[in-house]
């Protein structure tokens, strides 16, 4: 048998029926491209309709081979890992930014305590504060701010107060350093107090 172009068409409400057309076909009327098949042989027809049915084998196959599908999946997996690393990096940066903001607020709280003590700020030189305790009772509000921001117990605030004139009196330069992550991250600010 020679190969002939046979068009597949869905007619009415019946299941798919394969109909051979000589002119225009119903697929073209639906805007679809006809498929090329090679007839293998005839089977007995349906006695209720009197129509014969034809068994077909595809002559021009389309689709993906297993290797093409695996290559596509590999490319997709590599791209997905790249996007995943971006998400993880953004979470890390978000946590770091949150810690820096907390460090800033805690340092400003400590500077506020130093300014409130005016000329006695020099007595707070070398003082330390953690989320659970302060080396000086004047710094207990700073400890409360640290616990409110959820700083870990190993985080610490160190105060350094040195006189500007070298005479043991204020005005003084105050350095406030907030560290967390076992000292891996630090926020430091410096100001003048006691004037």
Short description:
The protein is α+β, with helices and mostly antiparallel strands. It is 33% helix and 24% strand.
What structural category do the secondary elements indicate? alpha+beta
In terms of per-residue confidence, which ranges show pLDDT below 50 for 5 or more consecutive residues? 1-22
**Helical stretch count?**
3
The protein's oligomeric status is: single chain
Strand order of the largest sheet: 5-6-7-8
Beta-strand content bin: 15-25%
Give the termini distance in whole angstroms. Answer: 108 Å
Largest sheet: 4 strands, antiparallel
Helix content bin: 25-40%
Q: What number of structural domains do the residues give?
A: 2
Instruction: Provide mean pLDDT, rounded.
Output: 76
Give, in order, the helices and strands. EEHEEHEHEEE
Total E-strand runs: 8
- Assign an overall shape: rod-shaped
Give the radius of gyration: 40 Å
Structure description:
- With 195 residues, the protein is α+β, with helices and mostly antiparallel strands.
- The chain folds into two domains: 1-81, no CATH class; 96-193, no CATH class.
- Helix content is 33%, strand content 24%.
- It has three helices and eight strands; from the N terminus they run ββαββαβαβββ.
- The protein has helices spanning 26-29, 66-116, 140-148, and strands spanning 8-9, 17-18, 37-43, 53-58, 128-130, 156-163, 172-180, 185-193.
- It has a four-stranded antiparallel beta sheet. A two-stranded antiparallel sheet has the order 1-2.
- Strand 1 (8-9) and strand 2 form a beta hairpin.
- The longest helix is centred in the middle third of the chain and has 51 residues, at 66-116.
- The chain is rod-shaped.
- The termini are far apart.
- Mean pLDDT is 76; it is low at 1-22.
């Amino acid at each position: 048998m020679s190969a002939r172009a046979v068009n597949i068409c869905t007619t009415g409400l019946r299941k798919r029926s394969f109909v051979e057309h000589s002119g225009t076909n119903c697929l073209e009327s639906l805007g679809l491209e006809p498929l090329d098949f090679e007839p293998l042989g005839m089977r007995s027809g349906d006695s209720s309709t009197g129509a014969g049915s034809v068994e077909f084998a595809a002559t021009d196959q389309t689709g993906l081979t297993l290797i093409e599908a695996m290559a596509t999946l590999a490319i997709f997996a590599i791209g997905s890992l790249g996007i995943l690393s971006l998400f993880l990096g953004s979470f890390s940066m978000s946590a770091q930014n949150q810690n820096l903001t907390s460090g800033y607020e805690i340092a400003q709280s400590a500077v506020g305590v130093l300014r409130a003590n005016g000329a006695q700020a020099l007595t707070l030189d070398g003082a330390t504060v953690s989320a659970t305790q302060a080396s000086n009772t004047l710094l207990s509000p700073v400890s409360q701010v640290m616990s409110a921001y959820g700083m870990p117990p190993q985080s610490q605030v160190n105060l350094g107060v040195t006189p500007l004139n070298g005479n043991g009196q204020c005005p003084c330069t105050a350095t406030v350093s907030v560290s967390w992550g076992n000292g891996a991250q630090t926020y430091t600010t410096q100001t003048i107090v006691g004037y």
